[in-house]
Every structure is written in structure tokens, then in C-alpha cells.
Specification:
The structure holds 2 protein chains of 2 kinds.
Chain A: H1 3-28, H2 36-60, E1 65-68, E2 78-81, H3 82-101, H4 109-125, H5 131-150, H6 156-182, E3 195-196, E4 199-200, H7 206-223, H8 231-238, H9 241-248, H10 252-260, H11 273-293, H12 299-318, H13 323-354, H14 370-383, H15 390-405, H16 407-432, H17 447-465, H18 468-483
Antiparallel strand pairs in A: 1-2, 3-4
Helix pairs in contact in A: 1-2, 1-4, 2-3, 2-4, 3-4, 3-13, 3-17, 4-5, 5-6, 5-9, 6-7, 6-8, 7-10, 7-11, 8-12, 11-12, 11-16, 12-13, 12-16, 13-14, 13-15, 13-17, 13-18, 14-16, 14-17, 15-16, 15-17
Chain B: H1 3-30, H2 37-64, E1 70-80, E2 83-91, H3 95-116, H4 123-142, H5 146-164, H6 171-202, E3 211-212, E4 219-220, H7 224-241, H8 250-254, H9 259-268, H10 273-280, H11 282-286, H12 289-310, H13 316-336, H14 341-360, H15 364-375, H16 385-388, H17 392-403, H18 408-438
Antiparallel strand pairs in B: 1-2, 3-4
The chains are: A mainly alpha, B mainly alpha.
């Protein structure tokens, strides 16, 4: 890693975050030059380009990860590794697509301010591994969502449920992080007493264990894992689609789990207890959510429950112990996120033209909007494992990985997959099937909508047809997560880093540990 | 250029030709500039014709080499740890004749549909789905690994579902499509699980690690237990697409789709996809007597059921659907008996006859009138000779059972589908109550997107 690359990475990271932040501030202060959409799209496009630059620089570097700033609690202020390099452009693409497709009335000045601020906070979150910064950014990402839902007509229930969930999650996260800092399992310098039988033993105290559990509970709440899942579909039903998508598709809780929990999975049994519980509940939620989606009565609830299911599936895979499972989870993260964003945007475009869409009976919308129907179908298929799309690869990896690990986990993943497929196709047939309304309105797709949806779809197909580069990048990242247990305790004295530099990340990536065999 | 290179090129061409038509028609349509009717049918037809010609050329090359199988490695799709998905195709005495047969049939149906669906609002959609089907079929037939086979299998299911529900304005078509899709999805679990078991057993999904030798004289390379598990999973997977009992209820309803697609899917190719997969994995079945017994019982049971039920159908397409089901059942039983060439011949001959019958079905009345005019009166009524030997009470009972389509679908509905849906409705109602409680009973009327 050269100093030039470091500088370029830092510069790109700064642009990714600062540009939308400044854009948001400018909007809040009444900046008016062109339409709010044009301004917001330009800002989001800059962030997307900067995030792609991060991916490019990272892929050209030799090191698996880079950290900037003083380490604290196993994390650093700025952390760029394979996970950041892969997920940041995905988040930026989702934000850009939302801004392009959003109906004009949803993009007034205050809404754009909130969207850009939320985007900046999300980008910043994906660039850090510092526990305290993560706590602050959790609040920063939830705040615009809550303000937006509260201001949406008919969104009071959703706002209240969202507020309860986020408050509980943030409190748990804050206390958990502090406890982890007070009694950090990763910072316990271990001599011979912490190494037994070739694997690390737990050497943290009660505070550390309680901290881990609290962070796990906060992740469960923020991800809508059963029994804390109610806010997820409620948000889709009560908020504008842009708010719901921007709040859920990046999956900030999954990222937090990766940073704070996955790397700490150095339990003698293989996996820390909180991760086992998290994984099992997540897989149950994935199957339950997908099954529940089959009987939803309106399109937004359908999308909400499916999003809940897919989000849980990601966490279920992330809490696994095999590279295949983790890789599959990251692929599901991206593929389901892009597909559900596409479906959400198409349904939003339909709703903005013809009102809310019920699923009690076939609505016959195909003849009104055949192009939107085609996009909905393609995104739906791309979300349920259509060969040639990224979801096919993702399903293959996560099913194989989970079946390899535990039979019941694999069966839950398969059930989630089967139910999600039935729900998705049922949704399509209910929305677009049905009697034709004679001389009814015809809703043509707008060029900006077509452009955004085509870009999302093209990404899904390109990554599905040539998954090699993505899977290799994820392999590097998951290799670090699994091959390097979080505790420096397991490192022999000779290789324990004295200081953290650009070549190392505090937790789990200490120099010299990369070559350790998978030990979880 | 060696013969291997030539075969590789031709095999890729068989696969790429229908896939390219998807791009040529699909991308402009998605961008809002669909090609004209004539251009659409010519492009898709051209893809099938190219695939057919490449298939024939491959057949000639293979025949010159005594049908020695040729494995075409197209590289690794992706790999994580020990899990590697390879793109591997196989050209042998089973796959290449089947590709010629399927692409040839697709080309003929394409030509028929160009006229039959003239000015139909979903003209382009039909041809796009036909191209998806052709691509999926060739992918499945040429698959040299279970991963590739699964990809083709999925494309078949999706295109089939969308063609059953082609007439979206008809409620019956939409219901039939959903039912077919649900059946496919449940049965696909078998293939998915089989793929995982194969990967775990031999480290990759390549068939050459499962069995060796040229078809039909392959030899199983895995232990009997693995072969039995994989075979049972494959048998389960094939029940859905081949409409075998108890997953047969969707087939008569699937005739809601356009006639050309009914002909090629449920008379010719899709319904025999399961038989093809079983023939491809025959060496595994050889080592799995349990799976073979299951095949024989399911096949004969389906044949008997479909034969009895089909006799009382009052519309031609339903009758033909049950006739297809009967033959598919017999083919399953033949495969279970360990025969290899006879089921293949049965598949091809039945597919040709049945697709012709289905394509002619819209003209049945006209044909009947012509026949009556030629005979100078009504032709003699068909009689069920075997049935006449049964006691009258049994005949009446059989008649009632047949009228209700054997009650099997009623049973599946009562025992599985309805309780499951009721349970989900109950859970959804609880969720709504819980949400209302959490939300403090806020009045959310008047929401706008």
C-alpha cells in the first residue's frame, strides 16, 4: 500500500460523505439552483463515482484492509476493507436510483435535505468500524427516517412503532458498545492462559459478555428480527417509499453486526452464543417473513415483509461460520437490496399514477402500464433466483453454506426461498393480472424512471453473469472475518502489533494474523 | 482445429443462438422500442434454426466418432472455498439428439405461433418467453454439471408459469399460473438439495465425477447411499414439472395458456424435462433400487389416474393434458424399470404426436365436420372396452372419481394448502393487532404514497 493510494482512498471517502452532507446543508439553507431533483441527483452521482473510486483503489491495493485514525474498542475511525469497497457503491447506487425515480411531489426541499443527510450518514457508517462513531451514526441514520415518517399523512402508527424500535435499539447499542469498551474481549492481552487447544478461549468479563448480548439485541431490533420485526412492514406501509427504501436497503445493522460481532466470534465452541441465537432467530424470521408475504393484502406490506425476510436472511448468513455462507449473505445483501429497491420504485411509480395497490383481487394493471409490469417482473425474478442474475449465485452460496453447516439452517433458508418466490410471483400476478379496464388510462414510463430501473437491472444481470470479481472481493473480506479471530489474544507476542497503521485494522486484522487458518 | 474444438464451438452455438435472440428482442423492448411482429418471429425463429443446424452438425461429428461423449469446459463461474460452480456442457448420444429435437420443435412452433398469435397484444411477450424456454431447455439438456442443469430447469419453470398466465385478463389463467409456479417451486427444492448433496459428495457439481462412460452405458462413481439420496431427491424434483401424482393437478389448468405454448410445454418438452433429467442421471438410479421402485409406483399410479380421469373430460385440451400425463407416467415407469433407450424413443414419439394434437385442437370441430362429411355420418363413439368388463357399481364409482379428478387435489388442498394458508392468515391477523397496539391505535386513514 503506497502513500498515494492511501491519500486517494481517504480523498474518495471524504468526497463520498462530505458532498451529500454539504448538499444537505445547502438545501436546508435554501439553496435554489435548478430543480431539487437535479441537484440531489448530481450530488448522489458524485458520491457514487467516489465510492466506485474507493472500490477501484482498494482492488488495486495489496492489503486486505486499511485503517485511519486512532484505534478504539477494536475499531478505527475510518476503515476501508473489502466489505466497504463492495457495499459502498451498492448503497450509493440505491440512493441515486431512489432520487431518480421518486415522484416530483416527494422531492420538495425538506425531503431532499433529509435524503441527502441520511445518505451522508449511511456512507459515513459504512466507512467506519469505531463503536462510538457507529452509535452516533445509528442515530443519524434513523433520525431523518423518523422525521419523514412522522410528517407523512397516515404515517402516525409507523412513526410511533419506528420510534419505539429505534429508541430501544439505540439504547441497547450505546450501552452495549460502552460495556464492550469497558471490558473489551478483543483487547485482553493473552499469554498462554488465553490459548487452549489451538483456539482462543473467552477471557472477557461479564461486562464484555453483556455488552456483546446488548449489541446483538440492538442488531436484532434494527434488522427487524423476530420478535422485534413489526416496525419493518409498518415502515413500508406508513412512510413514503423513498424513506422506507433508504432506511432499510443499506442494512446498517448488518454492517454493525459485521464490525462488532462477527469478528468476535472466537468462542471455543466455534461461535459466540449471541451469534448462534442471532443466526437462528434470523433464519426463522427469513422463513416466517417470506411465508407471511404470501397472505399480504396490499403491495407495500408485501414488499415490507419480503424486505424483512431478505434482511433476516442476510444476518442469518453473516452469523455463519463458513466462507460460503458469509459470501452468500453478502451476495444476498446486494442482490435482494437491488431487486427490492427496483420493485419498490416500480410500485411507487405505479401508486403515484393510480393510487394504492391492493392484492385482495387481481388489479389488472398490466394493460395500464406494461413497461412497469415488465420491470416489476424482472426485478421480482432477479430477487428470487433467476439464473443469470446475482440472486442465483447468492442463493446457491447461502443454501450450500447453510446446509453444509447445519441441516435445519439450510432447510430454513430453502423454505424462505420457496415462500419468497411464491409471494413474489403471486404479487406480480395480483397487481398486473385481472380484467382490462376498457378505455382506462395508459401510464407510460418516464425516461428517468427507465434509466434508473435499467441501471439497477443491468447491475443485477452483470454481477450474475460475471460474479467472479465480486465473489473474489468478498472472499478476501470474509477470509479476514473468519480466518482472523477478533482477539489479539491469540496472537503470539512476536507478531502482536505495537501500533496500528494503515496496513492494519484494530480488531482482527493485526499484521501477521492474516495467515492464521480459519479457527471459528 | 481438432474435433473437440469443433464440437465445443457447435455446442456453444446451440446454447448461444436462442440466448442471443433474448437480447435482440428483449433489450429493445425494455428500452421502449420493440421490434415488429415479423422481425420478432424471424429473430427468435432464426435463433432456433441456428441452434437446430448446430445440433445436426454436432450429431454428424459425434456419429463419426461413434458417439464418444465430449465434455466442453467453459471455465469456472465462481468459486468459494471448496465450492466451485463450473460451466460444463456435455455433447453425447443423449444430449445432442435431444437438442436437435427440442430446437427443431421450437422452430416449428415458432413458425406456427407467428401466424396464430398475429396481432395478439402479447405477441412480443410470447416470443420472448419462447426464447427463454428454448435457452433453458438447451441449457438443461446440454448441462454437464448439476449447477448448469439447475439454471436451465429454473428458466423452464419461469417461462412455463408466465406462459400459463399469458392471458392476464383471465382469472383462471392467473390462478393456474400461480398453482403451477407453487408446484414447481416446492419440487425444485429436490433439485436444489440434490445439487448440495452432489457438491458435498464429490466436491463439485460435475456429472463426470458422478458417473463415467458414454450414454447409455454409464457407470456410477459414488457410493450407493449417495446415489440413493441424490436419486430420491431428483425423483422428487421431477414430479412437479412432469405432473406426476400427487403434483399433477396443475397440468389440466395449464392449458389456459396459448395453444402453441401448451403444445410445446405440456405436450412435448417441458413435461418430459423430468424424464430427461432422470435419463441423464440413470447411472445413479442404477445404484438406487429404492428410487427406481418409487419411480415405477408413481409412474404407474399417475398413468392409471390420468387415464381414468382423462376419459370423462369434456374439453379437448383437458383430455389431451391427461393423455400427456398418462404417457409421462408410463415413461417414468420405464425409467424405473431400468430401460434407457425405450423411454427416450417414447419421449420423442409422444412429444411429436401430442404437440401435433394440441396444435390442431383449435381446429377440432372443423376436423370433425370434415370427417363426418367424408364418412357420410357420425363416426362410431369411442368405447372403453376394459371398463365394460367391470361391475356396473365399480364403473359408476370410477366415473364419479374421474369426474372429481381423482380427489387427489381436493386431498392436497384440505390436508396441506388450506391449513397452511389459514395458519398464515391467523399470523397476519395477529401481526396487525400487535401493530395496532404498538401504534397506539392511531388513525392512519388518508395515506398517500
Amino acid at each position: 500500500m503506497t502513500a498515494t493510494t492511501d491519500t486517494c482512498l481517504l480523498a474518495a471517502a471524504a468526497i463520498t460523505v462530505v458532498v451529500p452532507l454539504v448538499g444537505s446543508a445547502a438545501m436546508a439553507m435554501g439553496f435554489r439552483r435548478g430543480s431539487p431533483r437535479g441537484f440531489a441527483v448530481a450530488v448522489a452521482a458524485v458520491s457514487l463515482l467516489a465510492s466506485l473510486a474507493i472500490t477501484l483503489f482498494w482492488s488495486r491495493s495489496d492489503s486486505a484492509s486499511m485503517a485511519f485514525g486512532a484505534p478504539l474498542g477494536g475499531g478505527t475511525f475510518v476503515c476501508i476493507d473489502g466489505i466497504t469497497a463492495v457495499l459502498l457503491p451498492y448503497v450509493a447506487l440505491v440512493e441515486l436510483a431512489i432520487l431518480l425515480v421518486a415522484p416530483r411531489r416527494s422531492l420538495e426541499q425538506s425531503a431532499v435535505t433529509r435524503i441527502l443527510f441520511g445518505a451522508a450518514a449511511t456512507y459515513a457508517l459504512f466507512l467506519t468500524s469505531h463503536p462510538l462513531v457507529l452509535v452516533v451514526l445509528w442515530c443519524a441514520t434513523a433520525l431523518p427516517t423518523w422525521i419523514s415518517v412522522r410528517g407523512t399523512p397516515g404515517g402516525r402508527t409507523a412513526a410511533r412503532v419506528f420510534a419505539i424500535a429505534m429508541a430501544a435499539a439505540t439504547v441497547c447499542m450505546a450501552i452495549g458498545s460502552v460495556l464492550l469498551l469497558v471490558d473489551p474481549p478483543w483487547a485482553v492481552a493473552g499469554g498462554s492462559e488465553s490459548v487452549s487447544g489451538g483456539s482462543a478461549s473467552l477471557s472477557g468479563g461479564w461486562f464484555g459478555a453483556a455488552g456483546g448480548w446488548l449489541v446483538a439485541v440492538s442488531v436484532m431490533i434494527r434488522k427487524g428480527i423476530f420478535p422485534f420485526h413489526s416496525w419493518y412492514p409498518a415502515l413500508f406501509s406508513g412512510a413514503t417509499m423513498s424513506t422506507a427504501l433508504a432506511a432499510t436497503m443499506p442494512q446498517v445493522a448488518s454492517y454493525t453486526a459485521v464490525r462488532l460481532l462477527i469478528g468476535h466470534a472466537d468462542h471455543p465452541e466455534g461461535v459466540a452464543a449471541e451469534l448462534v441465537v442471532l443466526s437462528q432467530l434470523a433464519l426463522v424470521t427469513a422463513a416466517y417473513g417470506a411465508a407471511l408475504a404470501i397472505v399480504q393484502r396490499d403491495l407495500r406490506s408485501l414488499i415490507g415483509t419480503l424486505a424483512m425476510s431478505q434482511s433476516a436472511l442476510v444476518l442469518g448468513g453473516l452469523a455463519g461460520t463458513l466462507p460460503m455462507e458469509l459470501n452468500g449473505a453478502f451476495c444476498v445483501w446486494i442482490s435482494s437490496g437491488l431487486a427490492l429497491t427496483g420493485i419498490g420504485l416500480v410500485s411507487w411509480a405505479l401508486e403515484s399514477r393510480a393510487g394504492p395497490i391492493r392484492l385482495d383481487s387481481p388489479q389488472g394493471r398490466f394493460w395500464d402500464a406494461p413497461e412497469l409490469a415488465a420491470f416489476f417482473l424482472l426485478f421480482g425474478l432477479a430477487g428470487i433466483g433467476l439464473p443469470g442474475t446475482l440472486s442465483f449465485v447468492a442463493d446457491d452460496l447461502i443454501v450450500s453454506g447453510s446446509l453444509d453447516e447445519q441441516l435445519h439452517a439450510g432447510m430454513l433458508v430453502i423454505l424462505a426461498n420457496v415462500f419468497a418466490g411464491i409471494a413474489m410471483m403471486g404479487g406480480w400476478f395480483h397487481v398486473f393480472g385481472g380484467p382490462v379496464v376498457p378505455d382506462g388510462p395508459r401510464h407510460a414510463i418516464l425516461p428517468r424512471e427507465r434509466g434508473a430501473l435499467t441501471a439497477l437491472l443491468a447491475t443485477l444481470f452483470l454481477l450474475g453473469l460475471w460474479p467472479g470479481p465480486l465473489v473474489r472481493a468478498l472472499d478476501r473480506a470474509t477470509g479476514r472475518l473468519l480466518g482472523v479471530p477478533g482477539r489479539i489474544a491469540v496472537a503470539p507476542e512476536s507478531v502482536r502489533p505495537e501500533s496500528f497503521g494503515p496496513e492494519s485494522v484494530g480488531r482482527g486484522a493485526a499484521a501477521g494474523l492474516q495467515d492464521l487458518p480459519p479457527g471459528r | 482445429m481438432t474435433s473437440h474444438d469443433i464440437v465445443s464451438l457447435l455446442v456453444v452455438c446451440q446454447l448461444a443462438a436462442p440466448a442471443a435472440t433474448l437480447l435482440l428482442v428483449g433489450v429493445p423492448t425494455l428500452l421502449g422500442r420493440p421490434p415488429s411482429e415479423r422481425a420478432t418471429s424471424r429473430i427468435v425463429g432464426g435463433g432456433f434454426a441456428t441452434g437446430f443446424a448446430a445440433g445436426l452438425a454436432t450429431l454428424v461429428v459425434l456419429a463419426a466418432r461413434s458417439f464418444r461423449p465430449e465434455i466442453v469446459h467453459l471455465g469456472s463461474w465462481f468459486s468459494v472455498g471448496h465450492h466451485e460452480a463450473t460451466i460444463e456442457l456435455v455433447a453425447d448420444a443423449l444430449s445432442v439428439p435431444f437438442v436437435c429435437f427440442s430446437t427443431g420443435l421450437c422452430a416449428l412452433v415458432n413458425a406456427f405461433a407467428g401466424k396464430y398469435l398475429h396481432r395478439e397484444p402479447g405477441f412480443t411477450r410470447f416470443f420472448l418467453l419462447l426464447a427463454v424456454f428454448g435457452t433453458g431447455m438447451n441449457l438443461m439438456v446440454l448441462a454437464g454439471s448439476i449447477d448448469v442443469l439447475f439454471a436451465g430447469w429454473e428458466l423452464l419453470g419461469i417461462s412455463s408459469t408466465l406462459l400459463i398466465g399469458f392471458f392476464l385478463e383471465r382469472g383462471n389463467a392467473v390462478r393456474a399460473a400461480m398453482r403451477a409456479f407453487a408446484t414447481y417451486r416446492v419440487c425444485d427444492v429436490g433439485l436444489l438439495a440434490a445439487a448440495v448433496v452432489v457438491h458435498r459428495a464429490v466436491g463439485s457439481g460435475d456429472f463426470e465425477r458422478l458417473f463415467s462412460g458414454s450414454w447409455p452405458n454409464g457407470t456410477c462413481l459414488v457410493p450407493a447411499t449417495t446415489a440413493t439420496i441424490v436419486s430420491l431427491l431428483l425423483v422428487f424434483a421431477t414430479l412437479g414439472k412432469s405432473a406426476q401424482v400427487p403434483f399433477s393437478g396443475w397440468l389440466p389448468e395449464a392449458m389456459e395458456g396459448p395453444t402453441p405454448s401448451s403444445a410445446i410445454f405440456y405436450g412435448a418438452l417441458s413435461i418430459h424435462a423430468g424424464a430427461y433429467v432422470l435419463l441423464r442421471c440413470e447411472p445413479l438410479l442404477e445404484q438406487a433400487p429404492l428410487a427406481r421402485l418409487a419411480l415405477i409406483m408413481i409412474g404407474l399410479g399417475t398413468a392409471l389416474h390420468a387415464n381414468v380421469v382423462g376419459r370423462v373430460q369434456t374439453d379437448l385440451k383437458s383430455m389431451l393434458a391427461y393423455a400427456s400425463m398418462t404417457q409421462a407416467g408410463l415413461i417414468f415407469a420405464e425409467i424405473g424399470l431400468g430401460w434407457r433407450v425405450i423411454p427416450l424413443v417414447h419421449v420423442v414419439s409422444h412429444a411429436i404426436l401430442r404437440s401435433l394434437q394440441i396444435l390442431r385442437s383449435p381446429s377440432a370441430l372443423h376436423d370433425r365436420h370434415e370427417l363426418e362429411a367424408a364418412l357420410g355420418g357420425h363416426p362410431g363413439a369411442d368405447r372403453w372396452s376394459v371398463g365394460r368388463w367391470l361391475p356396473e357399481s365399480v364403473q359408476v364409482r370410477l366415473y364419479r372419481i374421474a369426474l372429481d379428478r381423482g380427489f387427489d387435489q381436493v386431498l392436497v388442498g384440505r390436508l396441506f394448502t388450506s391449513p397452511f394458508l389459514r395458519l398464515l392468515e391467523f399470523a397476519a391477523a395477529l401481526e396487525r393487532r400487535w401493530l395496532a397496539l404498538l401504534g397506539g391505535g392511531a388513525n392512519d386513514r388518508g395515506r398517500r404514497p
